[in-house]
Fold this sequence. Notes:
Mean pLDDT: 95
Strand order of the largest sheet: 8-9-10-7-11-12-13-14
Number of helices: 11
CATH topology of the largest domain: Dihydrodipicolinate Reductase, domain 2
CATH class of the largest domain: Alpha Beta
Radius of gyration: 20 Å
Structural class: alpha/beta
Number of strands: 14
Distance between the termini: 40 Å
Strand content: 25-35%
CATH architecture of the largest domain: 2-Layer Sandwich
Amino acid sequence: MSLRIGVVGAAYASSAHLPAYAALAADGVAEVVAVATAHRDTAERVARSFGIPTVHVGYESLCADPDVDLVDVATRPSRHRAMAVAALAAGKPVLCEAPLAGTVADGEAMAAAAAGAGVLGVFGVVDMQSRFWPGLLELRRLVARGYLGRVQNIAAAAFYPTFTRPEAVAGSGWCADASEGASSLRVHGLHTADVIRWAFGELTRVSGVAATLSSSWPGRNGAVTSADSAAYTAVAGDGPGAGAVCSVHTSWVAAAGSGWRLAAYGSEGVLVTSAAGHTGHFPVRLEGARGGDSLETLVVPEAGVVSWYPFGELIRAVAARRLADVPSFADGVAALRVADAVEAGLDLGEGL
């Protein structure tokens, strides 16, 4: 039987989650059986558009729905804690949109609720779906196999023009508000932190700077309080990249942003991954070289691949209960701690 999903939230879900669920339903993997928003007219409009049979007003009602197997929380991060905890208390596993929460404290409370649910099959997954691009899966596999030799340096850069574009601001204007749990590090940048942690090892000695460099966004009234640009350094503290020096530089207001790139250099080779935009939605290319040879392409993104492909692969893993393959709430908290350290200008020291 396919996994029966209840989705909380309609705005982001309509473009990023619900199309994936529609394709997965055709394969018998998962289907959306209910949707909840704060307003009935919004929920009914989404339900009509995607053929969802049940509408709820408010997340509490959806969490109690006996026909829902898993609750997908697809709202802004400041609202995640209450919604996820309610679902877990109702005995439902939770898939939470990234970032996991608005604060580390909220994320820790969510992770504790998932760990303490005490019901077989109840778990928490955070939607850091970048891991599921074939290029990044192969990056991790090669690093683990020793393609690089001893990993020495990791450098990532992510420059996106997102909030220089009125259409992006109109759809996600809440990202300008730090009180909603927003910043370039938390919304886009945490995917990079997660990929580095997952492929190379836990980040330690995190230290950096974050700044709000664009005081206004096109089409938005009011001040911008979220940090739009950040840079930090770290050291891989364990795993196949243990000891490697790492740098990350990111912005979501780069007017002519060139996309995402991560390069890892080792004693025996180099691996370079790249994407035209945010890795949550843009396919990733992988190149590599060993022994001083020229870079060769190892993974080429398929032509015409849909932007929600990695999310769909994450859901396939969840439906198959391959939970070791998916980012947990603990992973979500770790990414938030990196953002906290950078935005506070603090040195986390060893053992993040």
